[in-house]
Amino acid sequence: MDLAKHCPAKIHSAEDAISKIKNGSRVFIGTGCGEPQHLIRKMVDNYNLQDVMVYQMLSSTLSDFVDDKDFNRRFSLKLFFISASMRKAAFEGRIDYIPVYLSQIPQLFKDQRIGLDVALVQVSPPDRFGFCSLGVSVDITRSAMENARIVIAQVNSKMPRTWGDSFVHIDEVDFFVPHDEALVEALPTEKDDEISLRIGFYVNQLVDDGSTLQIGFGHLPYSILQYLDNKKDLGIHTQLITDAFLPLFEKKVITNKKKTLLPGRTVASLCMGSEKLYRYVDNNPMFYFRSSEFVNDPTVIARNDNLVSISSALEVDLTGQVCSDSIGYLFYSGIGDQVDYLRGSTMSKGGFSIIALPSTAQNGKISRIVPHLSEGAGVATTRGDVNFVVTEYGIAELHGKGIYQRVVELAQIAHPKFREEIIDAAKSRHYIFADQLPPSQEDLLFLEGYKTRLQLKNGRTIEFRPLLPSDEFAYRNFFYSLQEETIFFRFFYKMKIFSHEVAQEQWASIDYRKNMSMIGLTQKRGHQEIMAIGTYADADDGCAEVAFVVREDFQGMGVASHLLKVLEKIAIENKYTSFCATVLRENTAMIRVFQKIYPNAVIKMAGGGEVMVRMDFSADRSVKKPAPARKA
Predict the structure, then answer these.
(1) pTM, whole model, 2 decimals?
(2) CA distance between the termini of the chain
(3) What's residue 199's pLDDT?
């Protein structure tokens, strides 16, 4: 549709359209890369304008002027989120930050709690029916348009036409300003790829095929996406689309086939990236752009089964409180959509949230896992909202756990040089037992190579990994789930109590080399529980003493045999040449496991009804008739 023919009276120069803004007006500007740059510059250039209040979600062009004293005298900036380019001005008090959940901003416009006199937006040229598109900036822009007294739209042929709720009829616009220019491009700067790689590695472990993802603002969530390229049939329901999604679309990792809400469609409300990205979303029916009150509504988010929310933070304290919008008293970013998605993912069937952050800041000088949030830091996310926290040192699972467990989980994923300090601080606050051992100060990334899975004949899958200090409560529950006979076979006496002190004694000796413990985990109602433990401990002369406990309902399924093979591989890496074991004579099932894996095992009778078993790693494994047990 030719605007000059259908509504010539609405076509104006930028200078003329901007002159409609009166002194004292409240002006909304479209978000991020969809902002109307030409209109913004002309507004700033109009020196007749005084005492204008500007509202914006993510600001780019205004950063060119925010250091100018004259600009600050004439314009007052009210931002819902502080972009990197505006951070310095925010620190210096030249920006008024409005902390509010993104899903609630449109309602503030509708209720006139934030009244708007003028909305400056950018749209694509109209189609033959008179509909323009808000393109890459639907988010809160649509509501601002609908509730402003005057709408001034820059018409830019380079603005993509996006599907969904992005369309605006020419009758809804008061003044059109035709002006073509390249959209703002937003690509994150490169940071420490090694840390991003390791965090991505752990996040990858949590995300299953067929999950629907939300990815938050910032460099780290952006980087994590590249480490999900081995997944299948991922779906997307998120506020922001960036270039990081493109490889996953191109590789058909993202198909949206498994989504329960709007299957086949990528749901978003904002797009920020490169020209390549803008061309990709242009008229692409795979994308469904909606306003923030829909995309970020927790009840809408929850309609996506298996919704995994991935967002970042500035620091996390030992109780699980998260700060994401300020460094102390300095406002750094914004609340944004983090809480909306954390709560939506919790209500989602099979859903959960991940807070991902590097373990340190300021080039390793300070820890981001802290005993308490910095003075002045805002609690964007409460301790009751957090599921998983991930750093480059591992995964902490907090949901449903007490302060004691949270401290141990978070200390494990802190940078090794801060772990002892964190445990000491927790003790001083009486968060944990006074005798609590600090996690190893070693980087335990190598333990990831010991993780395995076993598919049982009944279809269930068992995951095996090294035992960690944070497993104390799960280990305790495992012990008390065992029958008396099973405990007797393992400990050689009728052990009744598995106390904190007993657990501390066991963990004190684990160094993951000379002493190793592997646990088997099975899924139960959305969480994992221990069903088997296998250990070896340094004995003498190149031998490691090995022992197992398998819960009764998993016995006879090959679990102990699998654990034995895993432990042998680890033992060989650590220069051991054989296993030895002390087994009660009546524990014939365990003896058969040893003989099955080591047909040439040497078995000797010992006193007290015990049997000594020696298993040489280098011995011939061909099946032979076992030698009869003989007395020592």
Answers:
(1) 0.89
(2) 99
(3) 94
User: For the chain, where do the domains classified as CATH 3.40.630.30 start and end?
Assistant: 469-631
Distance CA 439, CA 318 (A): 14
Question: What's the mean pLDDT in 587-615?
Answer: 90
Per-residue pLDDT tens over the stretch 170-203: 999 999 999 999 999 998 665 668 999 999 999 9
For residue 45, what pLDDT band results from cuts at 50, 70 and 90?
very high
What is the rounded distance in angstroms from the CA atom of residue 237 to the CA atom of residue 270? Answer: 11
Mean pLDDT of 533-547: 91
Question: Contact, 288 vs 265, CB < 8 A?
Answer: yes
Q: Which residues, 6 or more positions from 593, have their beta carbon under 8 angstroms from its beta carbon?
A: 548, 560, 561, 564
Query: Position 165: which residue type?
Result: D
Cα–Cα distance measured from residue 396 to residue 470, given in angstroms and rounded to the nearest whole number: 9
List the CATH code of the domain at 193-428.
Answer: 3.40.1080.20
Least confident span in 146-150, 284-288, 607-611: 607-611
Q: Tell me, which fold does domain 3-178 have in CATH?
A: Glutaconate Coenzyme A-transferase (3.40.1080)
Q: Rounded distance, CA 120 to CA 40, Å?
A: 8
Question: Looking at residue 494, what is its pLDDT?
Answer: 53
C-alpha separations of 590 from 231, 365, 547, 613 in Å? 39, 50, 9, 11
| Residue whose token pair is 């280098």 | 618
pLDDT in tens, 82-135: 988 999 999 999 999 999 999 999 999 999 999 999 999 999 999 999 999 999
The Cα 534–Cα 511 span in angstroms is: 15
pLDDT of residue 484: 82
Q: What is the CATH number of domain 469-631?
A: 3.40.630.30
CA dist., res. 281 & res. 219, Å (int) = 21
Q: Please say whether the beta carbons of 294 and 288 come within 8 A.
A: no
Domain with CATH 3.40.1080.10 in the chain: 3-178
Q: pLDDT tens digits for 135-172?
A: 999 999 999 999 999 999 999 999 999 999 999 999 99
Question: Can you give the pLDDT at residue 508?
Answer: 65
Cα–Cα distance, 330 to 472 (Å, whole number): 39
Helical (H) or strand (E) element with 409: helix 403-413
Q: Measure the CA–CA gap between 617 and 621, rounded to whole angstroms.
A: 9
Q: Which residue type sits at 188?
A: P
In degrees and rounded to multiples of 5, residue 500 shows phi and psi of -60, -40
- 40: which 2 tokens? 């913004």
Q: How far apart are CA 172 and CA 145, in angstroms?
A: 8
Residue 613: CB atoms within 10 A of its CB come to 20
Residue whose C-alpha is closest to residue 172's, from 106, 114, 119, 109:
119
Contact status, residue 120 vs residue 40, Cβ threshold 8 Å: yes
What residue ranges of the chain are covered by domains with CATH 3.40.1080.20? 193-428
For 65, which DSSP code?
A: T
Q: Give Cβ neighbours of residue 502 (< 8 Å, ≥ 6 apart).
A: none
Helices (H), 286-358: 292-295, 298-301, 338-347
Q: Which residues contact 132 (CB under 8 A, 6 or more apart)?
A: 123, 124, 125, 126, 153, 155, 167, 168, 169, 170, 173
| Spatial separation of the C-alpha atoms in residues 491 and 454, rounded to whole Å | 26
Q: What DSSP designation does 392 have?
A: T
User: What is the pLDDT, as a whole number, of residue 492?
Assistant: 44
H-assigned helices in 416-558: 416-428, 472-481, 484-491, 500-508
